[in-house]
Amino acid sequence: MSIDLLSFLAWRPPAYICPRCKALHVASHGTFGDLPYQQKVLTVNDNVRSFLMRTVNRGDDWSWVCSVCDLEITREEREIWSKELRLGSYKDFHELISIASNFPPYTPPQKSQYEPLALLIELIGASRKFIHFMSYNIDSTFITALHIASKRTAVRGIVGRPLDSYTRALVDSLPRSDNFSIIVQDDRGTIDNNHSKIIIIDGIVMIEGSTNLSMNAFNKVSGVGRPPSEKPRVSLQPYEVMRDNNQYFSTNWLQYQTGTTASECFPLPF
Ligand SMILES: [Zn+2]
After folding, report:
1. Which domain holds residue 144?
2. Considering the entire predicted model, what is its pTM?
3. Across residues 130-143, what is the average pLDDT?
4. From ligand 1's centre to the CA of 133, what distance in Å?
5. Is residue 195 predicted with pLDDT exceeding 90?
6. Domain count for the chain
7. Residue 239 in this model has a pLDDT that exceeds 60
């Protein structure tokens, strides 16, 4: 009997992150990594292929190939950069889940006692692995919050239009950090408007909706001076979070990466 991988993935967090496109993967396709024996018999369809590293035979070894950007990672590279490739333990994720469950659909908007902005700031503060976001716009408040968070978590974001002059000056004056990468899109990339606003935290929480990362947008959500607009929604299903991360964030992020080999995409190993 086969097991539906989608229901299995519903509670399985990502295990690996591609060093180039930042796609999230649960395991390698050839071996299913460390999955238990009974999971070797799986229903694998196109929906889930992007969650699995492909494997290709290279002599006595297996290389992994990212199913989103086709980057090949040899066994030697996997060993050297194991820490960067693996997302590690998820034992502390309860805080993230409990904050996120205050968003719709888990809590109806009229029943939530928290402002969406307060919840988002709490989520940013609770991130321990990475924050990926796509937003049409971002203001200095969110740059500040994300930059503070980048002391503990990797922040990677794509913004769809030029920053306002104050926010631009703030970004330019912040110290450079590998943990804080904001791409402002130019004519090389175009964010699909339907999916231009997502925030993915640690690969297990995704916030989506029509809200940009700006105080103006969140004032609209709260209905300051007017009827409230659509509240952001969350997904806590890891397979949905991974799917949208890989399909929307990673394909856009890839357009701005210059490395062509795994060694060029990982940090120097010392
Ligand atoms: Zn990749």
Report:
1. 94-254
2. 0.87
3. 94
4. 17
5. no
6. 2
7. yes
CA 210, 22, 14, 147 torsion-angle sign: negative
CA of 267 to the centre of ligand 1 (A): 15
Ligand 1 centroid, distance to 239 Cα (angstroms): 17
Q: How many residues does the chain have?
A: 270
Angle of helix 116-126 relative to helix 140-149, nearest 10 degrees, comes to 30
Tell whether 15 and 147 lie within a shared domain: no
Residue 102 falls within a domain, yes or no?
A: yes
Nearest-5° Cα angle at 84, 81 to 86: 100
Answer yes or no: is pLDDT of 84 > 70: yes
Quote the CA–CA distance of 163 and 161 in Å, as a whole number. Answer: 6
What is each CA distance from 114 to 41, 149, 216, 222, in whole angstroms?
44, 21, 18, 10
What is the Cα Rg of the chain in Å? 19
Q: How many CB atoms lie within 10 A of CB 216?
A: 11
Q: Where are the alpha helices (DSSP H) in the chain?
A: 5-9, 46-49, 75-80, 82-85, 94-100, 116-126, 140-149, 165-173, 215-222, 238-244, 251-254, 262-265
The helix (run of H) or strand (run of E) holding residue 58 is strand 52-58
Q: What's the mean per-residue pLDDT of the chain?
A: 83
Give me the DSSP letters along 84-140: HHB----TTTHHHHHHHTTSTTTS-GGG--S-HHHHHHHHHHH-SSEEEEEES-B-H
Quote the ligand 1 centre to 20 CA distance (angstroms): 5
Q: Within this chain, do residues 210 and 249 fall inside the same structural domain, yes or no?
A: yes
Are 59 and 107 found together in one domain? no
The rounded Å distance from CA 209 to ligand 1 centre is: 25
Residue pair 15/239 in contact (Cβ under 8 Å)? The answer is no
Domain match, 132 and 56 both:
no
Backbone angles phi, psi at 216, to 5 degrees: -55, -45
